[in-house]
Amino acid sequence: MTSDTSEAELHLVQQLIARERLSLDLCARGRTCFLSHIGAAPRLVPGPWIAHRDLIYALALANLAPAQRTALARAVLVEHDREFGVGRLLLRTLPSGLPLGGSSLRLQPRGGPTCLYTWALGELAAATPCEWLLLRAEPGWSQPDPPRPLTPAALETLHALSASVVILVATAADARTVAERCLQRVPFTAHPRFLPHLEGTIAAATRAPDARVRLWPHDAVAAPGFWSSGARTTSGARDRSQRPGRSTPAPASEPGAVLLVDAPEAVRRQVEAWHAAHPDARRIEIACARCPGRADRAAVLALWQTCERPQILLRGDPEWAGEARRFLQDLGARVEAQAQGTQLPLL
Predict the structure, then answer these.
(1) Cβ distance 167 to 215 under 8 Å?
(2) Which residues pair with 132 in a beta bridge?
(3) Is 80 exceeded by the pLDDT of residue 347?
């Protein structure tokens, strides 16, 4: 493929994402929004939505505003590997390997290059031949030496030590993954945003409001309940045994940990500032971990090869995109990168 042809295709791909009737994980006025994962859309603005059946069911459990719930009732439900159309596009969803209806989307425009849009990738993400692969840089495969994945053994050890543990994750899909893979034998609770999506994973999700282990969103570090010691509730409410005007400090022997799962720099800095101001900071560990079940470099390589080595449009957090681009180019891929500030209105 010549340079001029490739540049023309890149322009067509960018137009496809920015100007077609369909928008991807971006609720925009006058456009139909395809929702790929719980939490992928920064703002869930009411409008015409399309999503996998399981994702729509998961959204139905969330605390939605009346207008959002009306949009949800009118949403179009799709199944994996069944074609449908929006405007001039022929579309097909594929499983991304993440729970709650996580999907990649194959886009086939009239007279344009075939694209596979991905927002997040699990270990077993499905692939299909395409000419352009749209990838979002994720820390698990972007970094040459990423943190180790979170494991059940680590959390069971902390639970056995009676440690207070907060596991910070980005989305409800990540929270569900951690609950299913790491918390089957550990009582835990979660932020109210996550709890509806954890039903059915483990009874402790609803039966252990005073659990020492909590699943918490990246953007709620400053929210009440982020940190509680002993058997205080995660909602930040006062324990029933306390009286107004009294406080019961945590025992000096009680350890604690904040586990940052795939956290960007802004979240890490916020947690570090909280930690520095905490009166018992010496007994609270801060550690980074990778979300279990997510694609690593070997899985991304396999996906790219199964897609028949397409060109790649890379987007995402600049902290991870630079390393991701070098990795993909070392594979022999032609990579075009979009800075986050430029790409967000488009994707």
Answers:
(1) yes
(2) 115, 311
(3) no
Quote the tokens at residue 180.
């299913």
pLDDT digits (tens, 9 = 90+) for 181-219: 999 999 998 999 999 999 776 554 445 667 899 999 999
| Cβ–Cβ < 8 Å for 340, 319 | no
pLDDT tens digit string along 122-138?
999 999 999 999 999 99
Q: Which residues, 6+ apart, have CB-to-CB distance to 274 below 8 Å?
A: 221, 222, 226, 227
Q: Where do we find the tokens 């749209």?
A: 134
Alpha carbon distance 333, 327 (integer Å): 9
Token digits for 230?
Answer: 């002993």
Of the candidates 83, 81, 102, 133, the one whose C-alpha atom is nearest the C-alpha of residue 336 is 133
CA–CA gap between residue 186 and residue 164 (Å, rounded) = 12
The whole-model pTM stands at 0.86
Residue 71's closest CA among 48, 54, 53, 37?
Answer: 48
What SS3 string covers the chain?
A: CCHHHHHHHHHHHHHHHHHCCEEECCCCCCCEEEECCCCCCCCCCCCCEEEEHHHHHHHHCCCCCHHHHHHHHCCEEECCCCEEEECCEEEEEEECCCCCCCEEEEEEECCCCCEEECCCCECCCCCCCCCEEEEECCHHHHCCCCCCECCHHHHHHHHHCCCEEEEEECCHHHHHHHHHHHCCCCCEEECCCCHHHHCCCCCHHHHCCCCCEEEEEHHHCCCCCCCCCCCCCCCCCCCCCCCCCCCCCCCCCCCEEEEEECCCHHHHHHHHHHHHHCCCHHHEEEEEEECCCECCHHHHHHHHHHCCCCEEEEECCHHHHHHHHHHHHHHCCCEEECCHHHHCCCC
Written as one letter, the residue type at 95 is P
Cα three-residue angle 96-98-99, rounded to 5 degrees: 130
Sequence-distant (6+) residues with CB within 8 A of 65 are 46
284 contacts 255 by C-beta, under 8 angstroms = yes
